[in-house]
Amino acid sequence: MLTVSTVNVNGLRAAAKKGFVEWIAATGADVVCMQETRAEYDQLSDAVRAPEGWHTLLAPSSDKGRSGVAVYSRSAPVSSRIGFGSAEFDTSGRYAEVEFDGVIIGSLYLPSGEAGTPKQDEKERFMEEFLPYLQELRARAEKAGKEVLVCGDWNIAHQEIDLKNWKNNRKSAGFLPEERTWLSRVFDEAGYTDVVRGLFPEGPGPYSWWSYRGKAFDNDSGWRIDYHVATGGLAGRATEAVVEKAPSYDKRWSDHAPVTVSYDF
After folding, report:
1. Whole-model pTM above 0.90?
2. Is the N or C terminus of the chain more exposed, i.e. has fewer CB atoms within 10 Å?
């Protein structure tokens, strides 16, 4: 069994003070992909940057205090990489990847964007570069007899059942038609599968992000933007998925919840 968890920690230093350290100590996951770590290696305590029993890969952003991804694994990877060959994005803390005997696992933090602003232009440039990489990665893995799993905060709700208030967000970044079309291309053209949606085909949700504003968490007015995106062979072996939503607002250590999937691998 291979169990993988993905979570946007909304600042690893802040999360460590609110419950992340206890969570990582208790999790049954074999691999944890993290996004929005927002920390340099030397800014983290030993308990956070190198927990006992874990091998860690951190990819901070060159723009300090922003973005950042990480992958923690119980087993040492046979290889690892930071970035995906992009002159613009490889130092921005957006993607890190580890390779094991049978699977390649990536942690992705896709730019959030903001409709009608340069931030949205940045998001579109990232998507334009990342899709060909996903296609190349799948081909490379297939040649080596391996599966691929790209976990993370994709910052796109793919379908209406992926967010509570979809009617009011049709012009919002994260639910724009062109973003949703791009994610469809990841599945249809690049040949990947939305693992959690495969296990929960009807919806709504399960949501993985809730705004800190208002009563979004209490009302489960969320978005499903944290995905396990896998090649078909691995996706077909998914047996269980759970969103580890905090029991109450005050118990949250991030505005996202871990999305954990077990694979019969």
Report:
1. yes
2. N
